[in-house]
Amino acid sequence: MKKLISTLAFGMAALTGVATAQTYAITNGHLMMTGDAADPGEIVNGTVIIRDGVIVAAGRNVTIPDNAEVYDAGGAPVTPGLFSPISGLALEEIELADDANDRRVGGFPLSASLKAADAINPDSTVIPVSRSAGVTRAHVGLLAGGDTQFGGCGALIVLDGSMDPLIKECAAQTALLGYSGARRAGDNRAASIAMFRRALTDARNYARDPYLYNQRWTEGHLPAEDADALGDVLSGDVPIIISAFSAPDIRRTLDLADEFGFDLILYGAVEAWRVADEIAAADVPVIIDPMTNLPYLWEDMGATLANAARLEEAGVDVAFANGETHNIRLMPQMAGNAVANGMSHLGALAAITAVPARIFGVEDQLGTLAPGKAADVVVWTGDPLELSSRPRVIFIDGKPQSLDSRQSALVKRYRNLERRDLPTQYYGQ
Amino acid sequence: MRKTTIFLAACLTLAACGGSGDDSESKETKKKDGEAVAELPDKNPYPSTYIRYPSEDVVITGATVLTGTGTLIENGAVVLHDGKVAAVGAADEVDIPDGAETIDAAGKFVTPGIIDIHSHLGVYPAPSVSSTSDGNEATSPNTAGVWAEHSIWPQDPGFNRALAGGITSLMILPGSANLFGGRTVTIKNVPGRTVQEMKFPDAPYGLKMACGENPKRVYGKSSPSTRMGNFRGYRDGWIDAAAYKKKWDVYAEKIEDGEDADPPSRDLKLETLAMALDGEILVHMHCYRADEMAQVIDMSEEFGYKVSSFQHAVEAYKAADLLAKNGTCAAMWADWWGFKLEAYDGVRENAALVAAQPEGCAIIHSDSDVGIQRLNQETAKAMADGNAIGLNITPEEAITWITSNPAKAMGILDQTGTLEAGKMGDVVIWSGDPFSVYSQAEKVFIDGALMYDRNDPNINPRSDFELGQIGQGPNGGAGK
Hints:
The complex is a heterodimer.
Chain A: H1 2-15, E1 23-32, E2 42-51, E3 54-59, E4 69-72, E5 77-80, E6 82-84, H2 126-131, E7 135-140, E8 150-158, E9 166-176, H3 178-182, H4 189-208, H5 210-216, H6 224-234, E10 240-244, H7 247-260, E11 264-268, H8 276-281, E12 286-288, H9 307-314, E13 318-320, H10 331-340, H11 345-350, H12 354-359, E14 377-380, E15 391-396, E16 399-400, H13 406-414
Parallel strand pairs in A: 1-4, 1-5, 6-7, 9-10, 10-11, 11-12, 12-13
Antiparallel strand pairs in A: 1-2, 2-3, 5-14, 7-8, 8-9, 14-15, 15-16
Chain B: H1 2-9, H2 24-29, E1 58-66, E2 72-81, E3 84-90, E4 101-104, E5 109-112, E6 114-119, H3 157-164, E7 167-172, E8 180-188, E9 206-210, H4 213-219, H5 227-256, H6 268-277, E10 282-287, H7 290-303, E11 307-312, H8 320-326, E12 329-332, H9 350-356, E13 362-364, H10 375-388, H11 395-398, H12 404-410, E14 427-430, E15 441-446, E16 449-453
Parallel strand pairs in B: 1-4, 1-5, 6-7, 9-10, 10-11, 11-12, 12-13
Antiparallel strand pairs in B: 1-2, 2-3, 5-14, 7-8, 8-9, 14-15, 15-16
Helix pairs in contact in B: 1-5, 5-6, 9-10
Domain Amidohydrolase-related (chain B): 109-444
Keywords (chain B): Hydrolase
Region (Disordered) (chain B): 18-43, 460-480
């Protein structure tokens, strides 16, 4: 109990701006993810020093600066902030409310040139809900419209509640192969790959000569804007997340990456374990839902809870997402289930921290507790992957964060249902 | 009084309707020799043919036992005999039958079989394609005449995955497109070639109803297109049902009085609703908003029926006192929210706040072929969130949210849902604390028979659909 009170006091002082220290020391923590994605590392009884928004030290035998505000973690786990690799966070406030959902794209002629960054809503209540569960960064993107294969550029955002949460405007392009791609191309896999090839060929032609491309453009080819956007994929400036599920589709997608020379990130990939060695050899990271184990379509027949562990064993970089927005806070549960089915604990933790940072090209700034990185730090009440654990203290860029959200306000209001002097709407504001 | 009882006379439970295969109609007509008797509809025309599988006597010792009655027993023993729970208690106080097989479960946990009150397994199976989409008869706001059991595909691999998560009984509901969606059915999670082989003997039927956005969205171009339209639809349905019930009661009464009378024509829709008015079919209503739940409770009083459970009940925490007072359970997710406006106010403390009311009845449900595989984990989160605001929920209480409470709301608590002598031998042995993410169901007994063993590939069912495919077992299976 004592610990909780000191935590609250600690957070409150910082938030109200009263004598806000720029230097913090989290002592006596079980530091997890002190290395890198390949070798995550952990240090028991460690200290993290945060100065001016950056981790300046993480380890044992660390000298605590005189001016540091000290927080004793009491042996509790300390991790980097969680990093969600795929969702509609800040785009999708309510999934089935058209005016509160900018993740879906209805009938619209452009695709690859769309930018999630243009629709980011920094006031989304899903941000504090996710942050209070330890999520500090997210890659967010649009869903490809019904007739198109490309979802446009996903953005990287920080969940600190700021008006401009963008940290990378165009972190990855997205495309659909597998059955969801096929549905958009004559309901046929071969057609969907032909459609994809044509799009990249369009992009190549556009890059060579935009004027000629426009002159010769005919119906069915990419509009110039989309061809231009895919040029960044061909040049290797922007990676592309391609969803593919079956082992054969994954192999075809690896071939396409070879053919066109783009940076591939596989998404979905329920049968990735069957071709784990090929994926590892191509050095392609994979974003999976480790809880998928049902054959929803014929491309999922090999779905198994062992996918994550088998990919890890083959040396593939694995990150976790199910594509859902409102519960990206459940990434630790995904990771815990991966561990229950054979993955290493640190490997599973890396899948929700360091690996996404690496996938989206910000591994030098985020994803671990290494000195020099942005101070996104979470102190947990227990094992971060355990169902009963919750964040106790959260820093983003070295600033203590509020653990409040619209949901905590609702709970405060309805904790007590007894009739009071005024209606409920007067309380808990 | 006789009027209401006559409609019920055919059977009070499915058992009396010939759960073992008897023809209730003939039973009824034989009642009075030589006299004309009422020709009442057969209330159980698709009877359960479930027969428990053979079992050995088993003693599970040394485990921490969460009984489902609110008790935790350290170093406990659970004895299964003849398919039933024979004894439960401290290991050194329980009589162990001669020749019983002993399972040393030291360090492990034992719970009643897990019960999911909200599943669409079989009616929305995997593979999930249009030809298997059999869960929503979204053709009319009132489809009370459809029965979920007629849509269930017994080969849904989801049943097997759920078994690996400790699920021993589940209620399968029609979807929520309609005001009156149709009849639910309760099954035992034992694979069968037919649905009848899976049907839980003697379980009452349920009636699925739906509040709010779904019916509005589906029928918006006709009616209902508003929430007031929804209520008009429900009330019209109940008024028709009451009139229908009366017709049959009058008919039966005439026959009883020796008068000549022809039976009224049957109406499947109204037959189900009339049985719900009689309390013979339990009402389970999909409802998110607290204010709508309050309206529904008033409606149930208007027509004299009871709502057994609100399903999803995302805002149950705002009306937890009302639900407790009315004796209505709330079946909830641990943390789903935000997918539609009526789910916008979801909070993770929902179940705990419902449970915290005196006589509060909280249930964690899945409504998902993924969630059903780990209702223990969903419960763990809901318990932790309650404890984070100081509600002091113990594991022995939390386990009731997925055992005895759903059993109560489904009307099967007298048969399963707790580890008490005389109940069905529906038991799960967990590798550790079931509220840890790392624990898994190791052995699952249904009516005393070992139906799932994580460490024995032979005790691990595979549906026809997955046979001969690359398909993997629930815990990694082939190729591991």
